Amino acid sequence: MASHHPIMTKEDLIAFLDREFPQIHMGGQSYFLEDIGPLSARMRMDYHDRHLRPGGTISGPAMMTLADLALYAAILGQIGPVALAVTTSLNFNFLRKPEPRALIADCRLLKLGRRLAVGEVSIFSEGSPDVVCHATGTYSIPERR
Amino acid sequence: MASHHPIMTKEDLIAFLDREFPQIHMGGQSYFLEDIGPLSARMRMDYHDRHLRPGGTISGPAMMTLADLALYAAILGQIGPVALAVTTSLNFNFLRKPEPRALIADCRLLKLGRRLAVGEVSIFSEGSPDVVCHATGTYSIPERR
Amino acid sequence: MASHHPIMTKEDLIAFLDREFPQIHMGGQSYFLEDIGPLSARMRMDYHDRHLRPGGTISGPAMMTLADLALYAAILGQIGPVALAVTTSLNFNFLRKPEPRALIADCRLLKLGRRLAVGEVSIFSEGSPDVVCHATGTYSIPERR
Amino acid sequence: MASHHPIMTKEDLIAFLDREFPQIHMGGQSYFLEDIGPLSARMRMDYHDRHLRPGGTISGPAMMTLADLALYAAILGQIGPVALAVTTSLNFNFLRKPEPRALIADCRLLKLGRRLAVGEVSIFSEGSPDVVCHATGTYSIPERR
């Protein structure tokens, strides 16, 4: 795979996600794009009441949303904001109970093809080396002319 | 697999989910348990602003939450509310754009073992025969004595 | 999804698979297409030494091959033999130890789109109702003109 | 995750796999354990007629077998040969057509719990940096006393 430099800056991507996914900020912003790089992105999810299950554990759906966003950001960073990428599959392994603090999602694209992009995401509790959730996802990319 | 009759009634399960997952009703209830049967459950998700992406499409995370809940309900129906089942993996295929109306999730358990339960979920737009999202999930079941 | 009648007969498909995948018959034929229907196919795998692990258990790879073939047959039945469908993802849940006899794989397509086909497969020991392996798969379909 | 040193040497593991999975060498050995490390293993699959589809492409089932073996080796390296680990799920993304040469599978365990082990595998054509197939797998581990 040739070296891929993103064509969107972090600031461009943040503005696009805010406009395109306003509902992820419902109740106060907790998802933040932290970094965008060649075939990669890093997202952060703050620890927030609405992501918790009773007892203070971060819920599965909150982590799934975070992984989907990180994959989406990494793909858009490479192909630009005009493209309408659609999630076609997502696979999650939940490995450990997250700590009661922010989560960091590191996404790496494994393939950026003409029609399909595939990537993986490792989610960590901030400051911990252990993966709490691992995801892979496939996105259908519209024809580019 | 021997015929399995659920040991929780629909009303028991609803009360348990309301108590255990109050955050799914944040902003008004939209997830409803519709039926519980032998190794099966049906959940409904009302069409609601907070599940939408711009343009009115139901978001992936809303469908993933629905599938996880349906699997969880089907398992608890069989093993009872004391058990602390934990999601260990979830796989999703997103097949079609859902219609702008309620979604129905039909869950069927493929295995209910001593340590692991595995099931599949087909999600439909209410009144339509086409699967919009298909999921499989694995749950770790605590030792039962 | 509109009702889909296959455009290949069972005999056409068998001839195509024999020609296209001769290596699956290496050591003697054990994979057989049993039926082809609208968005569906049934394959059989005979119980044979080369599919076994020590102790006589059918191996995971033998079941994975069977599921992949059943999905491939169901797709080709719908789109015809000219198409070069490529497997893009396969997910397996291994649920029970298979019996020491033939396996039957029932495949059902969940989506047959312009670019992607998605299906699920349930594998049973012949004569038993219990699913021993459940698979979902996604195939990329070349442009059709 | 604490640092984990394998308790089996590469030689021990090779002897165990040869004894436990003789059928993978049917027709001549093509799968080789190349390395074993902390929570990791590397397997190699030689380019061989019986792994090919017409045209010389390495088949999906050959890659799936390789990934399963690499995961199995990494787990046994950590827990020893007495354990009877059973594959409970495997997920594959097929990303590129492999080159007509040997494949290398790099496996990394993401979790080694009391009851479940989870790992990922990246498969490359030897000498190429591009992932041709990515897999994740879950294995059930018997009670250890």
UniProtKB/TrEMBL annotation, chains A, B, C, D:
This is Hotdog fold thioesterase. It holds the Pfam family 4HBT. Residues 55-128 form the Thioesterase domain. Keywords: Hydrolase, Membrane, Transmembrane, Transmembrane helix. One of its GO terms (molecular function) is acyl-CoA hydrolase activity. Signal peptide: none annotated. The chain crosses the membrane at residues 69-92.
